[in-house]
Design brief:
496 residues, 16 helices, mainly alpha
Amino acid sequence: MRSTYDEDVHTSGLAGPPDPRRWAVLAVLSLALFVIILNNGLLNVALPSMMHDLDIGIGTAQWIVDGYSLVFAACLLTAGTLSDRYGRKRATLLGVVLFGVGTLLALAADGAAQLVVARAVMGVAASLVMPGTLSILVDVFPEHERPRALAVWGSASALGVAVGPVFGGALVGHFWWGSVFLVNLLPVAVVLAAGLLLLPESAAPVPRPLDPVGAVLGSAVMVALVFGAIHASGDGWTSAAVLGAFGGALVCATCFVAWERRHPSPMVDFALLRRPAFLGASAGIMLLFSGLAGTLFTLTQFLQFGLAYGPLKAGLALAPIAVAVGAGSSLAPWLARRTGPRGGVATGLAAAAAGALTLAAADGYPGVLPGLALLGVGVGLALGPATDTQLSMVAPERSGNAAALSDTMMELGNAVGVAVVGTVLAHGTVGAAAPGAGVEAAATAGFVTAGVIVAAGAVLAGLLLPGPARPAADEGTGKPVVRTPHTGKEAPVRPA
């Protein structure tokens, strides 16, 4: 079967001049992405107050958090395929509406079960929004502007992770725990109103057949993997529940691969995963977010238990990473033009790994600051070029599905990072006399683990991603052109 990704189509699909509203469109897309990423950081800070008011234990609280991640990961691939078929604007705005509905359900909840349902609705919504934002971006930006646009989009995602604790700490400190949901409503209204006016509609020109069997199997794989990774931190990697989840994921993955290889229009083209550039970019994104999530998970506890910071002060202490992410994102297109995807992604991952290792040596906040700066700059440098490499290898009519695959790698990275580093922290505090005791000493091992995870991504990026494009002469005109290393397409040389 001929791979759909082997078609010689790698442009944005624009038939004429670029959309003059494209930067306004990017602002709407970035705000939508920022809100859905911000949500988890907000909730984490509110958990102690929520547990007290609702009289629930840590296990129930974990399900309030995890219900979002489980449903989000399970629905991503299906949501990406549906957006390609029925329209990316429709899918994105439907997701925004559902996110608002889930927020209202959470605000009205008076028990833990209702909160779990509300968070699940928000997870479905996020799975529609996240790939939609990326595929619309690809459609409206010409290829030479796409790296800058992806840098902004990527910084919105990383900033959502970084500033969530800041906003959450401020809200819980001044209001009640439900205020972390209330803050969603204004951005949802803005995105919905602006999106109706600004976002262009796009879809695959030839609708692909639906694949309900593949959708169920793919969702089952994601649920089992995320469930196992999340519960490994509390139950241990060798517990029956975790081993059962990973075993179920393996069985479902085997069935999914077998089914998709026979399907005339598969949800995932496995030929793409055999390409070194795509594999390197995907692994880099997953390991970057794994290390970032693990580092922030450790750092919030280090600041509160080790340095005795309150929730608001701890959140504000993390604010410099947001500035650093923005700085790295602004430099990413410049670095990628000169060093290619390999240099941009590997340098960013190496800087992020150095940041985590710097945090491991910190014994106070003055030592934390340089670690935050390196981590943030590294995230900003790596994310845009890695995502651009993935999408440049995919035909435009499959951009929604490809974006969903990229987002799935991020979500898996988040879950695995917290699970792995959480296990390290749990082992370091065994036998502690009180909750939080021993975290300061165990945090060093947590930061080192996160740094090693990201450093592995830097090595893979250096081995698998292509270097800078090499100028060549066009055989017909003799004018200089650039042959892009990951697609082989030729394009005129542009001034640096």
